[in-house]
Specification:
single chain, binds magnesium ion, elongated, five-stranded mixed beta sheet, binds guanosine-5'-triphosphate
């Protein structure tokens, strides 16, 4: 499991100062005190979101400030409260106070909210200090400062995408090209012996986690090769990316290569073979006349799968693939959110 962590600073808004003022109006001699209170500073709120899945955004932007309360004004006008700031974190994020080491919160579900730094109270204006014997008070209070914390966010990441394919298909090479992960790569089957995760950035905002696992061979679900036990590492991914090597020198039929994997997935767990899938023609730099590539294109068309042509050596098609994965994940997340939203809306009718 890949662990992602960051330290961020959160500063809630300061309260506004109370005001000293006296009423001055024509024909009203000796108007009383009229200094209004300061507004409250904004809170910093963390909210868990199923739309986010990494802490990457915090690396680039580690400081958060909520709005300050405005100062009170004459004529008993209270200052406006400062704006709260809602910071969204991925589900699975655990928040610690960096200074005390105390665990503050574990966001184990979406749409949970906590106030991690409270805004300062506004100070009272002089109007609040008036009594029958103290009619022209000049006392007033400054606003309280907003809370300031350093928070340690830790996220245990689950992969969004699983790479599957025969041994030597180029899975680890692909992961090493699209993420910072450095899995072992070599020109023989079963190079990968342990799953490896990498975080992929696609565009400004989007990122996702990809898992590379050992290759599968025919009979893997009966224990051949390294077996299918590593598939449990990608059991909870939303999307499978299936690599088929289209090198000219291979003699197998790409459709058979494809079906071997599909059969092993189903042998491990029927739902696994039903997962959304993108097809990747890997090693296109070695495609030569392109016979295997064309055969794979036909497989994609027949099975209604989106096909990407990539080479981890020349870099061809890698950007398109990253964008294609991000797009597909976006669609899948939206469909999930809609499904969750509609079931939530239906719930009350049954209560
Ligand atoms: N020419 C070329 N060679 C590639 C490409 N991608 C991978 N290779 C080579 O293919 C071999 C296997 O690559 P890996 O990335 O280790 O394959 P894998 O699918 O992870 O293999 P296992 O871990 O054994 O299942 C290595 O020698 C890579 O250098 C490619 O796009 N073009
Ligand atoms: Mg590998």
């Amino acid at each position: 499991m890949l662990i992602d962590e960051v330290v961020i600073t959160v500063k809630a808004g300061d309260g506004g100062n109370g005001c000293v003022a006296f009423r001055r109006e024509k024909y009203v001699p000796r108007g009383g005190p009229s200094g209004g209170d300061g507004g409250k500073g904004g809170d910093i709120i963390l909210e868990s979101s199923s739309q986010h899945n990494t802490l990457l955004q915090f690396r680039y932007n580690p400081e958060y400030r909520a709005g300050r309360g405005r100062h009170g004004e004459g004529s008993n006008r209270t200052g406006h409260d400062g704006q709260d700031l809602v910071v969204r974190v991925p589900v699975g994020c655990v928040v610690w106070d960096e200074q005390t080491g105390e665990k503050l919160y574990d966001f184990d579900r979406p749409d949970l909210r906590i106030v991690v730094a409270k805004g300062g109270r506004g100070g009272r204006g002089n109007a609040r200090f008036a009594t029958s014997t103290h009619r022209a008070p000049r006392e007033h209070e400054p606003g309280e400062p907003g809370q300031l914390y350093r928070l340690h966010l830790v996220l245990k990441m689950l992969a969004d995408v699983g790479l599957v394919g025969l041994p030597n298909a180029g899975k680890s090479s692909l992961l090493s090209r699209i993420s910072a992960a450095r899995p072992k790569i070599a020109d023989y089957p079963f190079t990968t012996l342990e799953p490896c995760l990498g975080m992929v950035r696609a565009g400004e905002e989007e990122s996702f986690v990809v898992a590379d696992i050992p290759g599968l061979i025919e009979g893997a679900h009966q224990g051949h090769g390294l077996g299918t036990r590593f598939l449990r590492h990608i059991e909870r991914t939303r999307l499978l990316v299936h690599l088929v090597d289209v090198s000219e020198h291979l003699s197998s039929d790409p459709e058979l290569d494809f079906d071997i994997i599909l059969k092993e997935l189903a042998g491990f767990q029927p739902e696994m073979a039903q997962k959304p899938m993108l097809l990747v023609a890997s090693k296109v730099d070695l495609a030569g006349q392109g016979e295997r590539l064309r055969a794979l294109e036909q497989v994609a068309a027949r099975r209604n799968l989106e096909l990407f042509r990539v080479s981890s050596i020349t870099g061809e098609g890698l950007e398109e693939l990253k964008r294609g994965i991000a797009r597909k994940l976006g669609q899948l997340r939206r469909t999930e959110a809609e499904a969750a939203g509609s079931s939530a809306a239906v719930m009350p009718a049954f209560q």
